[in-house]
Amino acid sequence: MFDRYDVGEQAILVHVDFTDEGEREDLTELKMLVHSAGVDAVDVVTTRRPSPSAKYFIGAGKADEVAALVQATSADLIIFNHALSPSQERNLEQICKCRVIDRTGLILDIFAQRARTHEGKLQVELAQLRHLSTRLIRGWTHLERQKGGIGLRGPGETQLETDRRLLRGRINHILKRLAKVSKQREQGRRARRRVEIPTVSLVGYTNAGKSTLFNRITDAGVYAADQLFATLDPTLRKLDIDDVGPTILADTVGFIRHLPHDLVAAFKATLQETQEAQLLLHVVDVADERLQDNTYQVNLVLDEIDAGEVPVLMVYNKIDLVEDMSPRIERDDDGLPVSVWLSAQQDLGIELLFEALSERLSGTVVEHCLNLPPQLGRVRGVLYGLNCVQQDEYTEQGGWLMTVRMPSADWQRLIKHSPEPIESYICH
């Protein structure tokens, strides 16, 4: 039922270089997408146009050229580096006598190959069904006929209407199951908020090195490869950060320019981790010549999913691929870390990232000298449990003289739950 092809097919790539900057796509990126999908590109057709043609997207002459190329190379697939309308796909298939998919269909197929978890598969199926629902008529004009024969004549729905009804039913079924998954995720987030565990979400352009960095600092063993959309299913792991304590780190799907809206809608539950994070780690590949544009595209998607207001720490990755570049932290005028330069692959600058995370997440760190009496031994145990004791000495009265350092949130929580007013034992 899905608009998918088998891995290993031979394809002709079609790329149009538009004069309008907003319509342009990257040919190198298309080749990387095709490679990620496991497709063999036998030839590339490029052309220049001021705007798309209504009938074929490309001109009629260029469409004939692509058709001749299909015959010459025995290709069984044409992949456009742009979003095509259903009628354009149908017209191209009629003239080229082979299957045609656009950039959106290609990305959906890669996602379908990468999905591993139950939720990920549901999200991909939802995106595919929404994409397919606009293309049901393509190549199936005979389905417009109503059913005929004894007992089946008269008014009734066409085969195409039946298919659309079944499609709507399946989409609604998936939406209900995803709503249940979303509710479970929200319960987990509420539990973390109750104990005030901060969440840090990794975001960035696809293939920027997010999963490699995630594995480096969490030992998670998440699949990482030099290909687009290596990660699809979100992974959460716990970190311990100085002056902050337990922190949740979330690895998310990579972004890409002109990310299909069906995908953004389908992955809403997953991207919620990004929306509700206390800090975003925006991972950037410094060795990529499209660095500035990739960063801009990620910011566009963050705005689209209502995460544009979340604080960001830039992480410039792959510095080992650039000459004369060393690990460092860059700070703003207030001394707050705004970017970290590192290499996750070569394990360079990872300790600087932890230092920057500690400063960005800890907020106000309080330090106190406490003179605890013997009856508050339980409080002393709690302080050790918080891993905040800097110094501890016995007093002549049998108590303890302690120096503690912790985030102000932990201090306020300690005051709230302590059986006695701890502030009265602060040394003055």
> Widest sheet: strand order?
6-7-5-8-9-11-10
Major β-sheet profile: 7 strands, mixed
Helices and strands, in order, run as EHEHEHEHHHEHEEHHEHEEEHEHEEH
State the shape: elongated
What is the CATH superfamily label of the largest domain?
P-loop containing nucleotide triphosphate hydrolases
CATH topology tier name of the largest domain:
Rossmann fold
Estimated share of beta-strand residues: 15-25%
Number of structural units classed as domains: 3
Q: What are the low-pLDDT stretches, counting only 5+ consecutive residues below 50?
A: 1-8, 138-147
Write the CATH architecture name of the largest domain: 3-Layer(aba) Sandwich
* CATH class category name of the largest domain: Alpha Beta
Rounded mean pLDDT is: 80
Structural class: alpha/beta
Annotation, overall tally of beta strands: 14
Cα-atom radius of gyration: 28 Å
Q: What assembly state would you assign to the polypeptide chains in this entry?
A: single chain
Helix content estimate: 25-40%
Number of helices: 13
Terminal CA distance: 75 Å
In brief, what are we looking at here?
The chain has helices at 27-36, 60-73, 86-96, 103-114, 118-133, 159-194, 210-218, 261-266, 268-275, 291-304, 350-362, 377-385, 408-417, and strands at residues 10-18, 40-49, 77-80, 99-101, 199-204, 235-241, 245-251, 279-285, 312-317, 328-331, 337-341, 365-372, 389-394, 400-407.
